[in-house]
Amino acid sequence: MKPDYSDSLDWLPGAMEPPCISLYQPTNRHYPENRQDPILFRNLVKEIEQSLARKYPSREIKPLLEPFHELADDRDFWEHALDGLAVLGAPGFFRAYRLQQPVPELVVVANSFHMKPIMLIMQSADRYQVLALTRKQVRLFEGNRNALDEVELAPEVPRTITEALGDEHTEPHLTVASYGKGAGGVPMRHGHGSRKDELDKDVERYFRAVDRAVFEHHSRNSGLSLMLAALPEHHSPFQRISHNPLLMQRGIDVDPNALTLEELGRRAWEAMEPQYRMRLKGLTDEFMEAESKGLAAREPGTAAVAAVAGRVATLLIDADREVPGRIDTATGAVEYDELEDPEVDDLLDDLAELVLHRGGKVVVVPSDLMPVPSGVAAVFRY
Q: Which tens digits make up the pLDDT trace of 172-192?
């Protein structure tokens, strides 16, 4: 099977036929550190093989691991790594995700994929996008507190003002009238239509086209806050015409092309951090209030029973905790065990999947910002 690589977390697998293999590791962006990445990957694949051998015959293990070995030998892939790697494999399925932040080394072989490290990135409140906009160029970036990287624009998003307006790009109208001559015998020109007015109209139509396309093909799918990086004089016009509900009021008021990627990322996080902390505080306050009314749980067992019944509206889980065990998806009963067992996953991971599948919201929170030490804070619908 040909390996499928992705830098996007917009699509993730649903239920798969077991065994489901999940591999996570930190990676390096630059030489020479990145030379160690495929070595670590091969060592983790050996751990997977040892785990599979406890239950499955070698004839079933070989096809499962073939795409992992192909990935290990793909030099181009390792030369373009980001900060972390997630690889998911199952019978007839294989996908590798380049991640914008490091993840701990981990391999899990179980009846379902171990998704918490990916959900940490997908569900984290610190993710955002930056629209870098000038008259000559449109670029989009995605980042978090640690990194910012450019993402490929959808084909429907115009890259320039000319691409946005095409043949409708306005040219100012000017006529020459014979009302005598000025100094030096030069004919006096009488223009109909201010050049500045016409250019302003072009810019507004350009902004509308970009705003509409970015929302339809990026913001709507990602659900991420969007901040504008543009010259100061472009912020008010863009905010005025924008219909993107995810556009932040605070942005970066400088020509984005004048900044390095590192400078753009630093300024973006400065703009994003207050909103991030405010959101986490709001979620903590919501949990505390719900708990005072008996509409919350801080223990995995209680939260699991509520999750199976579809009662969990919001689930906060600790990014750094693992609770080995399994959940009975019919009753919510919890059984604690050891991760070394090929059929055992992290309870917090399985709990998060249950909540998501039943229409709840999951937010993975850094340990120091969790409202409780148990690793779980669930708010009930009723």
A: 444 444 444 445 555 554 444
- pLDDT score, position 189: 47
Q: Determine the pLDDT at residue 185.
A: 53
Distance CA(154)–CA(124), nearest Å, equals 24
Mean pLDDT, to the nearest integer, of 259-268? 96
Buried-state track 160-183, b at ≥16 Cβ within 10 A, e below 16: ebeebbeeeeeeeeeeeeeeeeee
CA 364/CA 282 separation, integer angstroms: 14
Compute how many other C-beta atoms are within 10 angstroms of the C-beta atom of residue 63.
Answer: 11
> Which fold is adopted by the domain 5-114?
3.30.960
Residue type for position 207: F
Residue partners of 304: CB distance under 8 A and separation at least 6? 327, 332, 333, 334, 347, 351, 354
Using a cut of 0.90, tell me whether the model's pTM lies above it.
no
Lookup: tokens for 62:
């070989």
Which tokens is 91 given? 């019978």
Mean pLDDT of 125-152: 91
Q: Tokens for 108, please give them.
A: 């899990």
Q: What is the mean pLDDT of residues 246-258?
A: 96
* CATH, domain range 293-380: 3.30.1330.30
The full DSSP string for 271-326 is: HHHHHHHHHHHHHHHHHHHHHHTT-EE-SHHHHHHHHHTT-EEEEEEETT---EEE
Domain ranges of the chain: 5-114, 128-272, 293-380
3-state secondary structure of 28: coil
Q: Are 143 and 265 in contact (CB under 8 A)?
A: yes
Is 351 strand, coil or helix? helix
Round to whole Å and give the CA distance between 380 and 189: 73
Which pLDDT value is given to residue 196? 61
- Whether the per-residue pLDDT at 130 is higher than 50: the answer is yes
pLDDT band at 141 (very low <50, low <70, confident <90, very high): very high
CATH top class, domain 128-272: alpha beta
